[in-house]
Design brief:
Keywords: Dioxygenase, Iron, Metal-binding, Oxidoreductase. By secondary structure, the chain is an alpha+beta fold. The chain has helices at 26-31, 84-89, 123-128, 130-143, 158-163, 230-240, 242-250, 298-316, 361-379, and strands spanning 3-7, 12-17, 20-25, 58-65, 68-74, 78-83, 120-122, 145-149, 168-169, 177-179, 195-198, 210-218, 225-229, 253-260, 263-269, 272-274, 280-283, 321-324, 331-335, 339-343, 352-359. β5 (68-74) and β6 form a beta hairpin.
Length: 380
Amino acid sequence: MTTLTVHDNGKYIAIQTQGKSTRFHAIWLRDNAWDSATRAVGNGQRLLALRDIPADTSIASAVIEGDIVTLTFAPEAKTVDYPLAWLMDNAYDTAASTGTGWTGSAVKTWDSGLMADVPVGDFAKVSTDDHALSGWLANVARYGFAKLENGPVTDMALMKVVDLFGYVRETNYGRHFEVRTEVNPTNLAFTGLGLQAHTDNPYRDPVPSLQVLYCLESSAAGGENMVVDGFRAAERLREENQDWFDVLSQYCARFEYAGEDDVILRSRRPMIELSPDGELVGIRFNNRSLAAVTDVPFDKMDSYYAAYRRLGEIIDDPDMEVTFRLNPGESFVVDNTRVLHARKAYSGAGTRWFQGCYADKDGLLSKLAGLQARTLEAAE
């Protein structure tokens, strides 16, 4: 049985259900009203600013009948209905997260054990079947990367991958970039050298949050792609030494790129980025682009470099990597704010041609949320 009580002269209500009490403030409830005078019917955006709601808002009466909570607010004398399920889904009267470096339930961290079950989708299916597309996008969101197989082996096919969920983010490299051996390259990515696992473009603010790499030719020996979960690497560092985790999350590194005429890109961000409540939200790690670190106090610099070294060792640990070879027509999408990517060295014999581009995660998450909402509506 669900019951409702009003407290503190209408300052808040408490809903008791299944032996648990959940509280909601009057001002929060009024601000989150979904009536047509408060929210636009078409898009749900607020029609009122907070200044339009009386600062002394309180709950004059409260009734719960079935799955609907009906509240009347003073001094407006305004009555609003709330679905009980919506209130419970958006409850904030919960135990605070403790510690730092936690991840949400939608995130699954991983190590080399994921090699046995690399998330993968079929290009034809995800292009024509919303259920398949939703599943593939959900894997990108959950694991931070996913492969795509059986795509066309045609120039610029990677744009068809981006079209599945969003838009290309253009940079100084253009709308896309070619990845193959070059003479006197402007970037080490365009050589046959192996690359340490890294996040791309840490010198940008904000960084491109997604990268797409698409294989068109792959007859050279070697060159396997590798991914490492930066969130899992950060978790390992925290488990081994909390002080080292703290120093990499509390002080900014500096990153810089100046490999082209009239292009000087700089950023100042921590290698391990946390939200104010301690959630792990980002990793920036790229030894090629690290500038002089100047934001760490003298008495913390030794610890900072020890932590930086250890994080790199964890990232380089074979037990952390998932390795796969991309064949022509295959691609993968990687969350560049979380998952580090690399490649093994490859020989000059044969050919190796990849095309890459950047996109933004908000587009992918928006597409995923829309598909999931449509599935829920169809089930009701």
